[in-house]
Design brief:
Elements: H1 2-18, E1 35-44, E2 47-52, H2 57-71, E3 74-77, E4 86-90, E5 102-106, E6 111-115, H3 118-131, E7 132-135, E8 138-148, E9 154-160, H4 168-180, E10 185-189, E11 191-192, E12 195-196, H5 205-208, E13 212-213, E14 231-232, H6 237-249, E15 253-257, H7 265-270, H8 299-315, E16 320-322, H9 331-335, H10 337-345, H11 351-368, E17 372-376, E18 405-408, H12 413-421, E19 425-428, H13 431-434, H14 445-450, E20 466-473, H15 481-488, H16 491-500, H17 508-525
Amino acid sequence: MKSKTILLAIMLLFFLACKESPIVDYQIIPHPNSIIYTNGSFSLTKEIKIFFTDELESEASLMKEYFKSDFGINFVDVDDEKRADIILEINNQYNSEKTEGYKLYVGNTNIIISSISRAGVLNGMQSLRQIVRANEDKFIVQQGEINDYPAFSWRAFMLDEGRHFKGKEVVKNLLDEMSLLKMNVFHWHLTEDQGWRIEIKKYPKLTEVGSYRDSTEINHFHSEVFDGEPHSGFYTQEEIKEIVDYARKLHINVVPEIEMPGHSSAAIAAYPWLGVSGKQISVPTRFGVQYDTYNVTDQRVLDFFNDIFDEIIELFPSQVIHIGGDEIRYDQWNNSKRVQYYMYKNGLKTPAELQVYFTNNISTLLKSKGKRMMGWNEITGARLHNYQTDEDTPESSQQLADSTIVHFWKGDSALIVNTIKNGYDVVNSFHEYTYLDYNYESIPLSKAYSFNPIPDGLPINLEDKVLGLGCQMWGEFIPTVESMQTKVFPRIAAYAESGWTLPNNKNYDGFLESLNFYLKRWDKKGIAYGPLK
Protein backbone atom coordinates (compact mmCIF):
# COMPACT_ATOMS: atom_id res chain seq x y z
CA MET A 1 0.00 0.00 0.00
CA LYS A 2 2.82 2.37 0.93
CA SER A 3 4.63 1.67 -2.36
CA LYS A 4 1.43 2.43 -4.29
CA THR A 5 1.08 5.75 -2.47
CA ILE A 6 4.67 6.66 -3.33
CA LEU A 7 4.10 5.65 -6.95
CA LEU A 8 0.93 7.74 -7.15
CA ALA A 9 2.80 10.69 -5.64
CA ILE A 10 5.57 10.34 -8.23
CA MET A 11 3.01 10.12 -11.01
CA LEU A 12 1.25 13.21 -9.66
CA LEU A 13 4.50 15.16 -9.55
CA PHE A 14 5.29 14.05 -13.09
CA PHE A 15 1.79 15.08 -14.20
CA LEU A 16 2.15 18.46 -12.56
CA ALA A 17 5.56 18.95 -14.16
CA CYS A 18 4.05 18.21 -17.54
CA LYS A 19 1.22 20.62 -16.77
CA GLU A 20 3.55 23.59 -16.40
CA SER A 21 2.18 26.91 -17.51
CA PRO A 22 1.87 27.07 -21.30
CA ILE A 23 4.68 28.52 -23.35
CA VAL A 24 4.38 32.27 -23.69
CA ASP A 25 5.59 33.46 -27.07
CA TYR A 26 8.24 36.14 -27.08
CA GLN A 27 6.87 39.48 -28.24
CA ILE A 28 9.89 41.36 -29.52
CA ILE A 29 10.29 44.17 -32.05
CA PRO A 30 12.09 43.64 -34.35
CA HIS A 31 10.96 40.02 -34.45
CA PRO A 32 13.87 37.57 -34.07
CA ASN A 33 14.82 35.36 -36.98
CA SER A 34 15.07 32.12 -34.96
CA ILE A 35 13.29 31.14 -31.72
CA ILE A 36 13.18 27.71 -30.05
CA TYR A 37 11.03 27.47 -26.92
CA THR A 38 11.44 25.03 -24.04
CA ASN A 39 9.08 24.34 -21.15
CA GLY A 40 9.49 26.34 -17.99
CA SER A 41 10.52 29.83 -17.00
CA PHE A 42 13.42 31.53 -15.29
CA SER A 43 12.71 33.75 -12.29
CA LEU A 44 14.38 37.06 -11.57
CA THR A 45 14.26 38.57 -8.10
CA LYS A 46 14.77 42.21 -7.18
CA GLU A 47 18.51 41.56 -6.92
CA ILE A 48 20.27 39.38 -9.45
CA LYS A 49 23.86 38.36 -10.02
CA ILE A 50 25.59 39.30 -13.26
CA PHE A 51 28.88 38.13 -14.77
CA PHE A 52 30.66 39.93 -17.59
CA THR A 53 34.19 40.41 -18.85
CA ASP A 54 35.99 43.76 -18.80
CA GLU A 55 35.33 44.45 -22.49
CA LEU A 56 31.58 44.38 -21.78
CA GLU A 57 31.65 46.79 -18.86
CA SER A 58 29.84 49.50 -20.82
CA GLU A 59 27.08 47.11 -21.93
CA ALA A 60 26.72 45.74 -18.39
CA SER A 61 26.38 49.28 -17.10
CA LEU A 62 23.59 49.94 -19.60
CA MET A 63 21.87 46.72 -18.60
CA LYS A 64 21.89 47.70 -14.95
CA GLU A 65 20.45 51.08 -15.86
CA TYR A 66 17.73 49.55 -18.05
CA PHE A 67 16.61 46.90 -15.56
CA LYS A 68 16.54 49.38 -12.69
CA SER A 69 14.38 51.74 -14.72
CA ASP A 70 12.15 49.08 -16.32
CA PHE A 71 11.64 46.69 -13.42
CA GLY A 72 13.26 48.09 -10.28
CA ILE A 73 15.83 45.27 -10.42
CA ASN A 74 19.31 45.75 -8.95
CA PHE A 75 22.41 43.87 -10.02
CA VAL A 76 25.31 42.41 -8.06
CA ASP A 77 28.57 41.77 -9.94
CA VAL A 78 30.10 38.33 -9.47
CA ASP A 79 33.49 37.10 -10.66
CA ASP A 80 32.41 33.51 -11.19
CA GLU A 81 29.97 32.82 -14.02
CA LYS A 82 28.78 29.67 -12.23
CA ARG A 83 27.21 31.90 -9.57
CA ALA A 84 25.61 34.30 -12.06
CA ASP A 85 21.96 34.62 -12.95
CA ILE A 86 22.82 36.55 -16.12
CA ILE A 87 26.00 36.11 -18.18
CA LEU A 88 27.18 38.50 -20.89
CA GLU A 89 29.91 37.10 -23.10
CA ILE A 90 31.88 37.68 -26.27
CA ASN A 91 32.02 34.43 -28.21
CA ASN A 92 34.36 34.62 -31.20
CA GLN A 93 32.85 31.43 -32.60
CA TYR A 94 29.33 32.89 -32.79
CA ASN A 95 27.99 33.89 -36.21
CA SER A 96 31.08 35.69 -37.42
CA GLU A 97 29.39 36.86 -40.64
CA LYS A 98 26.65 38.71 -38.75
CA THR A 99 28.53 40.90 -36.33
CA GLU A 100 25.38 42.45 -34.85
CA GLY A 101 23.79 39.06 -34.30
CA TYR A 102 23.40 37.44 -30.89
CA LYS A 103 22.26 34.33 -29.03
CA LEU A 104 19.94 34.76 -26.06
CA TYR A 105 19.63 31.57 -24.01
CA VAL A 106 17.11 31.39 -21.18
CA GLY A 107 17.53 28.20 -19.14
CA ASN A 108 16.25 27.12 -15.74
CA THR A 109 19.34 28.34 -13.86
CA ASN A 110 20.62 31.30 -15.85
CA ILE A 111 20.36 33.61 -18.86
CA ILE A 112 23.28 33.88 -21.30
CA ILE A 113 23.70 36.55 -23.96
CA SER A 114 26.47 35.78 -26.48
CA SER A 115 27.78 37.53 -29.56
CA ILE A 116 30.94 38.04 -31.54
CA SER A 117 30.62 41.79 -30.86
CA ARG A 118 29.67 44.24 -28.15
CA ALA A 119 26.92 45.57 -30.42
CA GLY A 120 25.47 42.07 -30.64
CA VAL A 121 25.47 41.70 -26.85
CA LEU A 122 23.59 44.98 -26.57
CA ASN A 123 21.05 43.76 -29.14
CA GLY A 124 20.52 40.63 -27.05
CA MET A 125 19.99 42.76 -23.97
CA GLN A 126 17.37 44.83 -25.81
CA SER A 127 15.48 41.64 -26.68
CA LEU A 128 15.65 40.40 -23.09
CA ARG A 129 14.09 43.63 -21.82
CA GLN A 130 11.00 42.91 -23.91
CA ILE A 131 10.33 39.36 -22.67
CA VAL A 132 10.58 39.90 -18.90
CA ARG A 133 7.09 39.53 -17.36
CA ALA A 134 5.90 40.59 -13.93
CA ASN A 135 4.64 37.73 -11.71
CA GLU A 136 3.58 38.90 -8.23
CA ASP A 137 6.79 39.86 -6.37
CA LYS A 138 9.19 38.57 -9.00
CA PHE A 139 9.80 38.62 -12.71
CA ILE A 140 9.85 35.61 -15.01
CA VAL A 141 11.20 34.89 -18.48
CA GLN A 142 9.97 32.09 -20.73
CA GLN A 143 12.72 29.54 -21.32
CA GLY A 144 14.03 29.25 -24.83
CA GLU A 145 16.82 30.21 -27.20
CA ILE A 146 16.98 33.05 -29.71
CA ASN A 147 19.53 33.07 -32.51
CA ASP A 148 19.11 36.40 -34.23
CA TYR A 149 20.80 38.66 -36.76
CA PRO A 150 19.83 41.59 -38.99
CA ALA A 151 18.63 41.27 -42.57
CA PHE A 152 20.36 44.56 -43.48
CA SER A 153 23.46 46.31 -42.16
CA TRP A 154 22.04 49.85 -42.58
CA ARG A 155 18.93 50.55 -40.46
CA ALA A 156 18.59 54.29 -40.19
CA PHE A 157 16.41 57.01 -38.77
CA MET A 158 16.92 60.54 -40.08
CA LEU A 159 16.09 63.71 -38.17
CA ASP A 160 15.98 67.02 -40.05
CA GLU A 161 16.86 69.84 -37.67
CA GLY A 162 17.61 72.39 -40.38
CA ARG A 163 13.94 73.34 -40.51
CA HIS A 164 13.15 73.04 -36.79
CA PHE A 165 15.84 72.74 -34.13
CA LYS A 166 15.06 70.25 -31.36
CA GLY A 167 18.07 70.08 -29.01
CA LYS A 168 20.29 67.42 -27.53
CA GLU A 169 17.90 65.91 -24.97
CA VAL A 170 15.34 65.21 -27.69
CA VAL A 171 18.06 63.61 -29.80
CA LYS A 172 19.26 61.44 -26.91
CA ASN A 173 15.71 60.21 -26.29
CA LEU A 174 15.40 59.29 -29.96
CA LEU A 175 18.70 57.41 -29.78
CA ASP A 176 17.39 55.44 -26.79
CA GLU A 177 14.34 54.34 -28.77
CA MET A 178 16.46 53.52 -31.82
CA SER A 179 18.73 51.31 -29.73
CA LEU A 180 15.82 49.37 -28.26
CA LEU A 181 14.60 48.82 -31.82
CA LYS A 182 18.11 47.74 -32.93
CA MET A 183 18.46 50.59 -35.42
CA ASN A 184 22.11 51.38 -35.95
CA VAL A 185 22.40 54.61 -38.01
CA PHE A 186 21.32 58.08 -36.89
CA HIS A 187 21.28 60.20 -40.04
CA TRP A 188 21.51 63.79 -38.82
CA HIS A 189 20.36 66.44 -41.28
CA LEU A 190 22.11 69.52 -39.89
CA THR A 191 22.14 72.14 -42.65
CA GLU A 192 19.30 73.48 -44.73
CA ASP A 193 17.97 76.56 -46.53
CA GLN A 194 16.09 77.52 -43.37
CA GLY A 195 18.87 76.94 -40.83
CA TRP A 196 22.50 75.94 -40.26
CA ARG A 197 22.64 73.93 -37.01
CA ILE A 198 26.28 73.01 -36.36
CA GLU A 199 29.09 75.21 -35.09
CA ILE A 200 32.01 75.60 -37.52
CA LYS A 201 34.77 77.50 -35.79
CA LYS A 202 36.44 78.80 -38.95
CA TYR A 203 33.14 80.24 -40.21
CA PRO A 204 31.30 81.61 -37.15
CA LYS A 205 28.64 83.45 -39.19
CA LEU A 206 27.20 80.09 -40.27
CA THR A 207 25.57 79.94 -36.84
CA GLU A 208 25.61 83.63 -35.92
CA VAL A 209 23.55 84.41 -39.04
CA GLY A 210 22.58 81.09 -40.59
CA SER A 211 20.94 79.52 -37.53
CA TYR A 212 18.33 82.30 -37.21
CA ARG A 213 15.22 83.16 -39.20
CA ASP A 214 12.64 85.76 -38.24
CA SER A 215 9.48 83.78 -39.09
CA THR A 216 8.31 80.39 -40.33
CA GLU A 217 5.80 79.28 -42.94
CA ILE A 218 3.01 77.24 -41.34
CA ASN A 219 0.11 74.95 -42.30
CA HIS A 220 1.52 73.56 -45.56
CA PHE A 221 3.90 74.24 -48.45
CA HIS A 222 3.16 77.47 -50.32
CA SER A 223 0.56 78.51 -47.75
CA GLU A 224 2.03 82.03 -47.61
CA VAL A 225 0.98 82.04 -43.95
CA PHE A 226 3.72 82.74 -41.39
CA ASP A 227 3.84 82.50 -37.62
CA GLY A 228 5.80 85.74 -37.14
CA GLU A 229 7.95 84.07 -34.47
CA PRO A 230 11.77 84.00 -34.63
CA HIS A 231 13.32 80.52 -34.74
CA SER A 232 16.93 79.70 -33.98
CA GLY A 233 19.26 77.13 -32.47
CA PHE A 234 22.43 75.19 -33.20
CA TYR A 235 24.75 72.63 -31.67
CA THR A 236 28.12 73.64 -30.33
CA GLN A 237 30.96 71.30 -31.16
CA GLU A 238 31.04 70.17 -27.54
CA GLU A 239 27.36 69.23 -27.74
CA ILE A 240 27.98 67.35 -30.98
CA LYS A 241 30.76 65.36 -29.29
CA GLU A 242 28.48 64.60 -26.35
CA ILE A 243 25.72 63.25 -28.59
CA VAL A 244 28.11 61.26 -30.80
CA ASP A 245 29.61 59.68 -27.66
CA TYR A 246 26.13 58.89 -26.34
CA ALA A 247 25.27 57.18 -29.64
CA ARG A 248 28.60 55.32 -29.70
CA LYS A 249 27.78 53.63 -26.37
CA LEU A 250 24.53 52.46 -27.97
CA HIS A 251 26.47 51.22 -31.03
CA ILE A 252 24.69 53.74 -33.24
CA ASN A 253 26.70 55.38 -36.01
CA VAL A 254 25.95 59.09 -36.46
CA VAL A 255 26.09 60.11 -40.13
CA PRO A 256 26.03 63.90 -40.60
CA GLU A 257 24.42 65.43 -43.67
CA ILE A 258 25.91 68.69 -44.92
CA GLU A 259 23.78 69.76 -47.88
CA MET A 260 25.37 70.82 -51.17
CA PRO A 261 25.12 72.30 -53.74
CA GLY A 262 21.44 73.10 -53.15
CA HIS A 263 19.52 73.66 -49.90
CA SER A 264 22.27 76.13 -49.12
CA SER A 265 20.52 79.46 -48.50
CA ALA A 266 21.36 79.70 -44.78
CA ALA A 267 25.08 79.40 -45.54
CA ILE A 268 24.82 81.92 -48.39
CA ALA A 269 22.96 84.32 -46.08
CA ALA A 270 25.97 84.07 -43.73
CA TYR A 271 28.61 84.37 -46.47
CA PRO A 272 27.14 85.80 -49.73
CA TRP A 273 30.29 84.98 -51.73
CA LEU A 274 29.31 81.30 -51.46
CA GLY A 275 26.35 81.89 -53.80
CA VAL A 276 26.23 82.29 -57.57
CA SER A 277 24.92 85.86 -57.42
CA GLY A 278 27.23 87.02 -54.63
CA LYS A 279 24.33 89.11 -53.30
CA GLN A 280 23.18 89.30 -49.69
CA ILE A 281 20.10 87.19 -48.99
CA SER A 282 18.16 86.38 -45.82
CA VAL A 283 17.63 82.97 -44.26
CA PRO A 284 14.39 81.85 -45.95
CA THR A 285 11.14 81.71 -44.02
CA ARG A 286 9.35 79.77 -46.76
CA PHE A 287 9.69 76.02 -47.18
CA GLY A 288 10.16 74.19 -50.44
CA VAL A 289 12.97 74.24 -53.01
CA GLN A 290 14.82 77.58 -53.01
CA TYR A 291 16.44 79.49 -55.88
CA ASP A 292 19.92 80.14 -54.46
CA THR A 293 22.70 77.58 -54.75
CA TYR A 294 26.42 77.35 -54.12
CA ASN A 295 28.75 78.61 -56.81
CA VAL A 296 30.58 75.34 -57.36
CA THR A 297 32.85 76.93 -60.00
CA ASP A 298 34.58 79.19 -57.44
CA GLN A 299 37.75 77.82 -55.84
CA ARG A 300 36.91 79.74 -52.65
CA VAL A 301 33.73 77.69 -52.35
CA LEU A 302 35.63 74.44 -52.80
CA ASP A 303 38.12 75.60 -50.14
CA PHE A 304 35.14 76.33 -47.88
CA PHE A 305 33.95 72.72 -48.21
CA ASN A 306 37.45 71.47 -47.48
CA ASP A 307 37.52 73.51 -44.27
CA ILE A 308 34.02 72.39 -43.31
CA PHE A 309 34.89 68.72 -43.73
CA ASP A 310 38.05 69.09 -41.66
CA GLU A 311 35.93 70.18 -38.69
CA ILE A 312 33.11 67.70 -39.42
CA ILE A 313 35.52 64.77 -39.52
CA GLU A 314 36.98 65.77 -36.16
CA LEU A 315 33.48 65.52 -34.68
CA PHE A 316 32.07 62.46 -36.43
CA PRO A 317 33.97 59.14 -36.56
CA SER A 318 31.53 57.82 -39.19
CA GLN A 319 33.20 56.42 -42.30
CA VAL A 320 30.31 57.85 -44.33
CA ILE A 321 29.56 61.55 -44.83
CA HIS A 322 26.24 62.50 -46.47
CA ILE A 323 26.34 65.51 -48.81
CA GLY A 324 22.65 65.74 -49.69
CA GLY A 325 22.66 66.75 -53.36
CA ASP A 326 18.89 66.76 -53.83
CA GLU A 327 16.37 69.20 -55.31
CA ILE A 328 18.68 71.66 -57.04
CA ARG A 329 17.16 74.32 -59.23
CA TYR A 330 19.54 74.91 -62.09
CA ASP A 331 18.28 78.44 -62.88
CA GLN A 332 21.23 80.28 -61.34
CA TRP A 333 23.77 78.03 -63.04
CA ASN A 334 21.99 78.38 -66.40
CA ASN A 335 21.81 82.18 -66.08
CA SER A 336 25.39 82.76 -64.92
CA LYS A 337 27.98 83.59 -67.60
CA ARG A 338 30.75 82.57 -65.20
CA VAL A 339 29.18 79.17 -64.56
CA GLN A 340 28.50 78.64 -68.27
CA TYR A 341 32.12 79.45 -69.13
CA TYR A 342 33.35 77.02 -66.45
CA MET A 343 31.13 74.31 -67.93
CA TYR A 344 32.44 75.02 -71.46
CA LYS A 345 36.05 74.95 -70.26
CA ASN A 346 35.52 71.56 -68.56
CA GLY A 347 33.49 69.97 -71.36
CA LEU A 348 30.23 69.97 -69.39
CA LYS A 349 27.16 70.35 -71.57
CA THR A 350 24.39 70.45 -68.93
CA PRO A 351 23.90 71.54 -65.30
CA ALA A 352 23.29 67.90 -64.39
CA GLU A 353 26.77 67.10 -65.66
CA LEU A 354 28.12 70.03 -63.65
CA GLN A 355 26.53 68.60 -60.52
CA VAL A 356 28.06 65.16 -61.10
CA TYR A 357 31.43 66.79 -61.85
CA PHE A 358 31.25 68.81 -58.61
CA THR A 359 30.03 65.80 -56.63
CA ASN A 360 32.97 63.73 -57.85
CA ASN A 361 35.35 66.46 -56.70
CA ILE A 362 33.75 66.24 -53.26
CA SER A 363 34.05 62.45 -53.35
CA THR A 364 37.76 62.76 -54.12
CA LEU A 365 38.14 65.29 -51.32
CA LEU A 366 36.41 63.02 -48.79
CA LYS A 367 38.32 59.97 -49.98
CA SER A 368 41.59 61.84 -49.36
CA LYS A 369 40.42 62.28 -45.77
CA GLY A 370 39.54 58.59 -45.37
CA LYS A 371 35.79 59.02 -45.79
CA ARG A 372 33.13 57.73 -48.16
CA MET A 373 30.54 60.00 -49.78
CA MET A 374 26.79 59.40 -49.73
CA GLY A 375 24.06 61.47 -51.38
CA TRP A 376 20.43 61.47 -52.50
CA ASN A 377 19.92 59.93 -55.91
CA GLU A 378 19.91 63.23 -57.82
CA ILE A 379 23.70 62.96 -57.62
CA THR A 380 23.55 60.33 -60.37
CA GLY A 381 22.41 63.05 -62.80
CA ALA A 382 18.94 61.53 -63.24
CA ARG A 383 15.92 63.73 -63.90
CA LEU A 384 13.54 63.44 -60.95
CA HIS A 385 11.62 66.73 -60.82
CA ASN A 386 9.21 68.62 -63.04
CA TYR A 387 11.30 71.80 -62.75
CA GLN A 388 14.16 70.00 -64.48
CA THR A 389 14.02 69.91 -68.28
CA ASP A 390 15.22 67.32 -70.77
CA GLU A 391 17.91 69.82 -71.74
CA ASP A 392 19.09 69.97 -68.12
CA THR A 393 19.36 66.20 -67.66
CA PRO A 394 20.09 64.30 -70.89
CA GLU A 395 22.20 61.16 -70.95
CA SER A 396 25.27 62.31 -69.03
CA SER A 397 28.89 61.98 -70.07
CA GLN A 398 29.86 62.24 -66.40
CA GLN A 399 30.10 59.03 -64.38
CA LEU A 400 29.48 59.28 -60.66
CA ALA A 401 32.43 58.16 -58.49
CA ASP A 402 32.20 54.41 -58.04
CA SER A 403 32.67 54.47 -54.25
CA THR A 404 29.55 56.59 -53.73
CA ILE A 405 26.60 55.31 -51.69
CA VAL A 406 23.44 56.37 -53.53
CA HIS A 407 20.56 57.19 -51.20
CA PHE A 408 17.46 56.42 -53.23
CA TRP A 409 14.35 58.44 -52.40
CA LYS A 410 12.55 59.23 -55.65
CA GLY A 411 11.95 57.56 -59.00
CA ASP A 412 10.59 54.22 -60.17
CA SER A 413 12.07 50.86 -59.26
CA ALA A 414 13.85 50.62 -62.64
CA LEU A 415 15.94 53.63 -61.66
CA ILE A 416 17.19 52.05 -58.44
CA VAL A 417 17.79 48.72 -60.20
CA ASN A 418 19.86 50.44 -62.90
CA THR A 419 21.84 52.32 -60.26
CA ILE A 420 22.70 49.03 -58.58
CA LYS A 421 23.52 47.36 -61.91
CA ASN A 422 25.94 50.23 -62.53
CA GLY A 423 27.84 49.06 -59.47
CA TYR A 424 26.68 51.37 -56.70
CA ASP A 425 25.77 50.48 -53.13
CA VAL A 426 22.32 51.79 -52.30
CA VAL A 427 20.29 52.70 -49.23
CA ASN A 428 16.58 52.55 -50.07
CA SER A 429 14.41 55.31 -48.62
CA PHE A 430 11.67 55.45 -51.23
CA HIS A 431 9.54 58.39 -50.15
CA GLU A 432 6.14 56.79 -50.74
CA TYR A 433 6.92 54.32 -47.93
CA THR A 434 9.50 55.94 -45.64
CA TYR A 435 8.85 59.69 -45.33
CA LEU A 436 7.65 60.30 -41.80
CA ASP A 437 6.46 63.82 -42.60
CA TYR A 438 3.71 62.24 -44.70
CA ASN A 439 0.45 61.81 -42.82
CA TYR A 440 -1.04 58.48 -41.79
CA GLU A 441 -3.51 58.55 -44.67
CA SER A 442 -0.55 58.47 -47.08
CA ILE A 443 1.61 56.07 -45.06
CA PRO A 444 -0.43 54.14 -42.49
CA LEU A 445 1.40 51.87 -40.09
CA SER A 446 0.60 48.81 -42.21
CA LYS A 447 2.17 50.38 -45.30
CA ALA A 448 5.30 51.37 -43.37
CA TYR A 449 5.54 47.76 -42.15
CA SER A 450 5.22 46.36 -45.67
CA PHE A 451 8.30 48.17 -47.01
CA ASN A 452 10.98 45.93 -48.48
CA PRO A 453 14.29 47.66 -49.29
CA ILE A 454 14.96 45.15 -52.10
CA PRO A 455 13.36 46.68 -55.21
CA ASP A 456 11.25 44.67 -57.63
CA GLY A 457 13.23 43.37 -60.56
CA LEU A 458 16.62 43.28 -58.85
CA PRO A 459 18.60 40.10 -59.66
CA ILE A 460 19.24 37.95 -56.59
CA ASN A 461 23.00 38.17 -57.06
CA LEU A 462 22.85 41.96 -56.63
CA GLU A 463 20.70 42.06 -53.49
CA ASP A 464 23.75 42.55 -51.28
CA LYS A 465 24.26 45.94 -52.97
CA VAL A 466 21.21 47.15 -51.02
CA LEU A 467 22.77 48.09 -47.69
CA GLY A 468 19.41 48.68 -46.05
CA LEU A 469 16.82 51.35 -45.47
CA GLY A 470 16.27 54.71 -43.86
CA CYS A 471 13.14 56.44 -42.59
CA GLN A 472 13.14 60.23 -42.72
CA MET A 473 11.60 62.78 -40.36
CA TRP A 474 11.65 65.93 -42.46
CA GLY A 475 11.19 68.97 -40.28
CA GLU A 476 9.12 71.60 -42.08
CA PHE A 477 5.90 71.17 -40.14
CA ILE A 478 6.95 69.65 -36.82
CA PRO A 479 7.58 72.78 -34.72
CA THR A 480 7.08 70.98 -31.39
CA VAL A 481 8.49 67.77 -29.96
CA GLU A 482 4.97 66.34 -29.70
CA SER A 483 4.23 67.05 -33.37
CA MET A 484 7.46 65.25 -34.27
CA GLN A 485 6.76 62.27 -32.02
CA THR A 486 3.27 61.61 -33.39
CA LYS A 487 4.79 61.34 -36.86
CA VAL A 488 7.70 59.12 -35.80
CA PHE A 489 5.94 56.76 -33.40
CA PRO A 490 4.77 54.04 -33.92
CA ARG A 491 5.95 53.92 -37.56
CA ILE A 492 9.64 53.85 -36.58
CA ALA A 493 9.02 50.41 -35.05
CA ALA A 494 7.67 49.16 -38.40
CA TYR A 495 10.78 50.36 -40.22
CA ALA A 496 12.99 48.79 -37.56
CA GLU A 497 11.40 45.40 -38.20
CA SER A 498 11.62 45.84 -41.98
CA GLY A 499 15.34 46.49 -41.61
CA TRP A 500 16.10 43.65 -39.19
CA THR A 501 13.66 40.78 -39.74
CA LEU A 502 13.85 38.53 -42.77
CA PRO A 503 10.72 38.95 -44.95
CA ASN A 504 9.58 35.36 -44.37
CA ASN A 505 9.57 35.97 -40.61
CA LYS A 506 7.51 39.16 -40.72
CA ASN A 507 3.90 39.03 -39.53
CA TYR A 508 1.89 42.22 -39.18
CA ASP A 509 -0.61 40.85 -36.63
CA GLY A 510 2.26 39.57 -34.49
CA PHE A 511 3.96 42.96 -34.84
CA LEU A 512 0.86 44.72 -33.51
CA GLU A 513 0.75 42.38 -30.50
CA SER A 514 4.43 42.98 -29.78
CA LEU A 515 3.85 46.72 -30.04
CA ASN A 516 2.05 46.65 -26.67
CA PHE A 517 5.42 46.66 -24.87
CA TYR A 518 6.36 49.87 -26.66
CA LEU A 519 3.00 51.55 -26.14
CA LYS A 520 3.30 51.07 -22.38
CA ARG A 521 6.88 52.34 -22.53
CA TRP A 522 5.96 55.39 -24.60
CA ASP A 523 3.05 56.19 -22.30
CA LYS A 524 5.36 55.98 -19.30
CA LYS A 525 7.96 58.22 -20.96
CA GLY A 526 5.40 60.72 -22.19
CA ILE A 527 6.13 60.00 -25.86
CA ALA A 528 3.19 60.88 -28.11
CA TYR A 529 2.33 58.48 -30.92
CA GLY A 530 0.01 58.28 -33.89
CA PRO A 531 -2.72 55.83 -34.93
CA LEU A 532 -2.12 52.08 -34.61
CA LYS A 533 -3.34 51.03 -38.03
